[in-house]
Amino acid sequence: MLDRESFLDFETEEKSEEEIKDEVRRAKLRALHLLTAMDRTEAQLREKLQASYCEEAVDTAIEYVRSFGYLDDERYVRVYIESKSRTKSRKQIEQELIFNKGVSKEAVQRGFETAQMADLTEVIQKYMQKKRIDPENCDYEQKNKFFAYMMRKGFQIEDLKKVFDLT
């Protein structure tokens, strides 16, 4: 039976050049397979590959798929923003991309500059329909409750006031 130290020594043994080449080849194929199923950010792909392959194979596989244009964080961010802007606030989208998808803040900012965002008024009106809020017939408490709900979702109070004609 191996103790912890011998196991770590066994794990860090040098691999032969042939084994490394084989692992790089398999990592490239796996990266291509993962990207055919769905678009991913570099951080997501790296995380998936690191579970099975050495760092050298992961780096080589990522460069390989990037060279063909299959891995492009800028495109991923732009498409993600355009699709999610119909249901989520800018703040919420930004948080998801940075913390869940592993995209840099700079890439997110560039994405917001180039993406075609949905009309914010329409998004807020959809939420109003979902929550059955009528701006002309709702009372003060109902309006405050809706504003608080929307602000927790990352919408700005100025935008909400515009929709409610309070400005």
Task: Kindly describe this structure.
This protein is mainly α. It folds into 3 domains: 8-67, no CATH class; 73-114; 120-163. It is 69% helix and 0% strand. The longest helix has 21 residues, at 17-37.
Strand content: under 5%
Largest beta-sheet characterization:
none
Number of domains: 3
Radius of gyration, CA atoms, in whole angstroms: 23 Å
H/I helix tally: 10
Chain-averaged pLDDT: 88
What form results from the Cα inertia axes?
elongated
Broad structural category: mainly alpha
The count of β-strands is 0
Ends apart, CA distance between termini = 74 Å
Unreliable stretches covering 5 or more consecutive residues: 6-12
> How helical, in percent, are the residues?
55-70%
**H/E element order:** HHHHHHHHHH
Please outline what is shown here:
The protein is an all-alpha fold and 167 residues long. Helices cover 69% and strands 0% of the residues.
Secondary structure layout:
Layout: H1 4-11, H2 17-37, H3 42-50, H4 55-67, H5 73-84, H6 90-100, H7 105-114, H8 120-130, H9 140-152, H10 157-163
Question: Any key phrases for this structure?
Answer:
mainly alpha; 3 domains; 167 residues; 69% helix; elongated
